[in-house]
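One such shown below:

_____
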Amino acid sequence: MNINGKDLAIDIDGPEDAPAVLMVHGLGGTTNFYQVQAQALAERHRVIRVDSAGAGRSATTDGISIESHAEDLAGVLDALGIGSAAVVGHSMGTLVVREFANRHPEKVTALALLGAVREPAEAGRQAQRDRAAVLREKGTAAVAPGVVANALSESTRQNKPEVTAFVRELVMRQDAEGYARNCEALAGAGDPGPIHSKLPLLLVTGGDDKVGPPEASQEIAEAHGSATVQILPAVGHWTAVEAAGPVTDLLLKFL
């Protein structure tokens, strides 16, 4: 689908007249990150999943940023004739959906954040710029081992080799330049601002998440005032695949 002059890959499941759910992956992810949750939600919801510009099957373009991703989400809903949706974001996608909710509050009925991240500190910004340089020089194979080692919990790596393999495949199949530009988008991310206190908010993160640690979710929840926070033990940062069943149940209950 052409959105804002970009060719974006979009998966749509579920009844056309059902309440909409928009799902946004994080850095290194694709629509397939949410496959288990999308199948379950599609029984009662119209589920829209988008490969962000430069990720998965979507084309790499100039000007990729948190803000451009947020505007692309608005464009997707407009193109589909959907006035508003519940929105789910993971990792860098939590910054994108928060930006989207603040720019287009009329389009967001509820917000679920998985592995919520803060805007990067300077060390984190430099780490993303360094990763972008490695991607351009050596390709995705050079960064995949680090993603697996640092973002998955030890329990997942030891007890769920199929999840480890899947995350490695997600990273390895990215376009290296698109991945690099998304790393730079994260490096340039600012604070998306507060989440409106009347917007229903769910936060789910892993107890062993080092990228979006539980403290980050707790801070967002405290600022919001009435959010629900669920911390999943022995789970790292790839929340929806490391704990597919619990995350699905939490989303079904929340939505």
